[in-house]
Every structure is written in structure tokens, then in C-alpha cells.
Amino acid sequence: MRRFARVALLCLGCGLCSLLYGFSQLALSLEQQPGGGRERQAPDPGARQQAGGGRAGARSAGRGEAGAGRCKNLSVSFWNSYWMLPSDVCGMNCFWEAAFRYDYMKTRPSEKMHLAVVACGERLEETVTMLRSAVIFSIKPLQFHIFAEDQLHESFKDILDDLPYEGKVNYTLYPITFPTESAAEWKKLFKPCASQRLFLPLILKDVDSLLYVDTDILFLRPVDDIWSFLGKFNSTQIAAMAPEHEEPRIGWYNRFARHPYYGVTGINSGVMLMNMTRIRRKYFKNDMTPVRLQWGEILMPLLKKYKLNITWGDQDLLNIMFFHNPESLYVFPCQWNYRPDHCIYGSNCKEAEEEGIFILHGNRGVYHDDKQPTFRAVYEAIKNYSFGDDLVHSLLQPLELELRKTMHTYCGKVYKVFIKQLTKSIRDLYARRSKGR
């Protein structure tokens, strides 16, 4: 009798395993069928968006990641690689995803990298140069979210539509928008439009993760590499930024700030990587109330409390926020946000000395005056590069000649850090092309 029971139990177990395998294959086939691709999102009627056409093909307004039928034919991990699931993803998909997500991750297609910038006033050329630098080296597809004053939209479209993207870039143009009841206060904070970045998690509701950069940023290696930091976040981290200074003796926050700030020298928000799903869900500790507040609830109270004590606008507000929530910030090295302060008083970014500059940040207007010719030389080289030309002879070699002319300056004395990573990025790009990637 016992032998019969054992055989019956073994048969029942085998049958259950076969049933589970059959269901898993069915779910996988539904995810991979031709109709299972991402659906296009209709433009948000609450915000006027424009997008260009031209050579990039399907650069349409409001192109997004969500669709009404996404629950029917897509794996949960397709929508969110960090397992923070949208509220409308169906329970059955969630069940099967838990069992088979790791196998699917090995075969899932490359996702877009989302990059946002805010451009106002005379920042058109600078912004386009930044976007060009992102396009040159990046590997995975890019989605640009460009927030600009209305009068700049047509100029952006004319320029971006004329660039040969090779099908790997889409863009969407957005107007500058602030909460109606407090728009005037946000507009006059620091520089025009600067505080727009604070509202990106609330505006781009269907974007899971985003890299925000100032207009005066230049990428000297693929965007893919800083995007990969998202995978290094622990369970509490929601954003990544670099320190404001490496050397406290020349730090601004630790010497002059009249408000709380993150760490020893504060953080710089010119390059900010965000898991926006986590940002939208988090309840933040603060010094205004014992009750934790969400992102959309905390911004205005912070501004009202500290507006007479902040100098750098939205960056100061972010410092205050992460002072109270330090566990939420991932700090990346200075070579990912290299600024004049890293060399004008002597070289103080050791990582850049060893590996080169990864992202160049030309704040203080150094791309447009003669105060820091090293920074200006890099900017001019990328601005004037023609897509399709040989990068070594048309960009790298002329740039090195110009950098040698700046050796009378502190930054010029370490000019090799400005081309060390750039040289490697060009070599890697040609290696990928030779392999047909």
C-alpha cells in the first residue's frame, strides 16, 4: 500500500511540473509573438508636445512606453527592470513573472535610455551640442525629453531632424510648465526654467528611469555607461549624483551654505540619474513635519521654508532633501561630472587622472569665454564635428592640438585627462562597427 502511495505521489509531482512548464512556455510565446511589442502612447492632453519627423523616422509626439493592452501581451519585466510594477499590470503576469523573470531577462530586447534636458534663453546651441555628444558614442537607443521655451521648439526641430541618427534616437519637445498655483515662484528661482527638473517625475509619469543633464554637459563616453548605475542602486536608493567638491578647503556648501546639505561638500545636480518610479513612491523624511511627504508634496513647503537661504535654487533643495534622506542617494565619482573646480585650483579629481573624464560639465559659462580654454576647446570640437567624418582625424587629433595650446592654464596642464577617455570611446566605437554592432 505504501509503495502504491509513493508511486501516486511521484506521478502527481511529475504531472504538476509538466503543467507548470507548459504554462511557462505559453506565457513566453505570448511575450515574444509579433503582436507583443510596445504600444505607442497618445500625447498627454494636459501638455502641448511636439516631435520631429525627418530622417529619424518615427520620432512622434508623446511616444512612450505604455499602452492600454500592455497587460495582455507583455512581461512585467518588459515595463520595469527594477520589479516595481505598474498598478495596472495583471496579477497572472505577476505570478508567472516571479517564476521565470531571470530567464526572460537574458533574452529581453535592449530598452531605451531616457535623457532629459531643460533649455531656455540662449541655450539652443549648447543643448544641441550636448545631444550630439550623447548620440556619437551611445549604444542602446536614446529617447530625448527636451523641455524648452515655446520660441525654441521650431529651431530644435529644424536642427534635430537634419541630423543622421541612424535610427537610434527619438525625441519629444515639451513646454516649460510649473504648478499653476506657484508658477511665478518657481520661474524666478535661480535661473529661468532651472527648477523644471524638480517636476520631471511628476510630468513624465510613464518613464521609469531618467538621466537629467544640464545643457552644458558633454558626454565623452557612451550614455550606456552612466545608465548602468541604475543596476547598482540598492533597495533604498532613488537617484545618483556626484559631489559638489572633492576638496573641502575650496567647497562652497561647507563654507557658505545656510541650509542643510548632503555629505561633506554637498552634491551637484548637473548630472542626475533617477529611478523615477521609486521617487514617485517614496515618502521623504523632512524638517517641516514629523509626517513623511511624497515628492509632489514636499517641494513647495521646502521652497517656502528655505527660499531666503538658498543660493543655487533647485540644487539647494535637492541637497536639503538628501540631507534628510541620505540612504536614498547613490554617489558616483567626480569623473562623471567634471567641472572647472576640479582643475582650476590644481587637479583634485583622482579618478579622472587615472581613467580620464567621462562627462564634462562646463558650468560658469566656460564654453563661451576665454577663462578656461581647455573646456572651450572640447566644446568647439564636438560642436563642429560632422557626423560620418572620421573621429580620429576630424575630432580627436585637432582637439589634442588645441588642448596643447592651453598648457599655460591649470586645467591645460592636465589636458590629457580631457582626451584619455575620449580616445578610448572612439576606439571602442570603431571596434563595435567592425563587428557590425
From TrEMBL:
The keyword Transmembrane applies. One of its GO terms (biological process) is protein O-linked glycosylation via N-acetyl-galactosamine. One of its GO terms (cellular component) is membrane. The keyword Glycoprotein applies. It is a single-pass type II membrane protein. It is found in: Membrane. Belongs to the glycosyltransferase 8 family. Glycosyltransferase which elongates the O-linked glucose attached to EGF-like repeats in the extracellular domain of Notch proteins by catalyzing the addition of xylose. This is Glucoside xylosyltransferase 1.
